[in-house]
Amino acid sequence: MLEAALFQLRAAIGDDPGAMAINIAANVVSNAIASAKQDGINAARVNDIEFAMNDLIAAIDDGGAPDGVYAAVALLQNDVARLRAANALPRETIASIRDLQTRLRARSKAMERAQFRVEGAEPEPLPHSPAELRALAVPLARELAAAGFATPSLDDLIAAHDEVRYHTLNEIVDELDAIAGG
Fold it and tell me: Within this chain, do residues 79 and 121 fall inside the same structural domain, yes or no?
């Protein structure tokens, strides 16, 4: 279905040199679809297609596309929505992501507040120890890897959990937002 909608999109764009940005974005969508077809459809590949679609829509908004482009993009969006529903991460995985993010944010905020304590005051203990965060991250990383997602920031937490830093916590939260759909 995606390939048929993509064919319609390419036909609607045509050879208009003014639609170069739209053509490039359509190529990125095409490559994401081809990759999913070759590697197998999973939640990660659907995410890749959605990201490419967002770029295509931005290019269309910026480029003043011909009318036929909008109908083809609507078809693509509907097909991607069906793919998303069929390949969505389980609710339990999304709940695990949100739980870990909540704990990461709490630790991050506490680390930030600790920088502004009264001189000579004892530092407050930080919530959610690195070992606790690692224990939550290990099964989550396995689930996400099984769904096709690369999680380099989460993997850093697992590998070097005793050295977890403020910025690393925020990177993990952002990485998980990109996976779970912020």
Answer: no
